[in-house]
Amino acid sequence: MSLVTTHVLDAAKGRPAAGIAVRLESGGKVLAEGVTDDDGRVRNLGPDELAPGVYRLVFDTGEYLGPDGFFPEITVTFRIADAQAHHHVPILLSPHSYTTYRGS
């Protein structure tokens, strides 16, 4: 399993959000890319180890939410302090809001 994983849940529809492109970035470089599966998850996003530092997950939500969605892209910036710990960063998404937290 990769060090960073994510999933997107569509709070308005009450189901996983499939087909959302996700990028893991650091220092302006793309480290990994993936797309949420039928369960709304990206299980293999990036290497098994990442150096401590600041990273970003960028979610391309525009196509999923369509023209009425307020957030065409969501960027979550987070810090990795323990290079060997698993970091799960989920998104709860709706057309006009989103929430994130450090998951398990």
Automatic annotation (TrEMBL):
**Which Enzyme Commission numbers does its entry carry?**
3.5.2.17
Q: Which Pfam families does this UniProt record tie to the protein?
A: Transthyretin
Write out the GO MF terms.
hydrolase activity
User: What reactions does this protein catalyze?
Assistant: 5-hydroxyisourate + H2O = 5-hydroxy-2-oxo-4-ureido-2,5-dihydro-1H-imidazole-5-carboxylate + H(+)
| Keywords carried by this UniProt record | Hydrolase, Purine metabolism
Q: Which Gene3D superfamilies match?
A: Transthyretin/hydroxyisourate hydrolase domain (2.60.40.180)
Q: Transthyretin/hydroxyisourate hydrolase domain location, by residue? A: 4-103
Instruction: Tell me which InterPro entries the record gives.
Output: Hydroxyisourate_hydrolase, Thyroxine_BS, Transthyretin/HIU_hydrolase_d, Transthyretin/HIU_hydrolase_sf
Which family, according to the similarity comment? Belongs to the transthyretin family. 5-hydroxyisourate hydrolase subfamily.
Q: What does this protein do?
A: Catalyzes the hydrolysis of 5-hydroxyisourate (HIU) to 2-oxo-4-hydroxy-4-carboxy-5-ureidoimidazoline (OHCU).
Quaternary structure, per UniProt, is: Homotetramer.
Q: What is this protein called?
A: 5-hydroxyisourate hydrolase
Q: Which organism is it from?
A: Amycolatopsis dongchuanensis
Q: Report which gene this protein is encoded by.
A: uraH
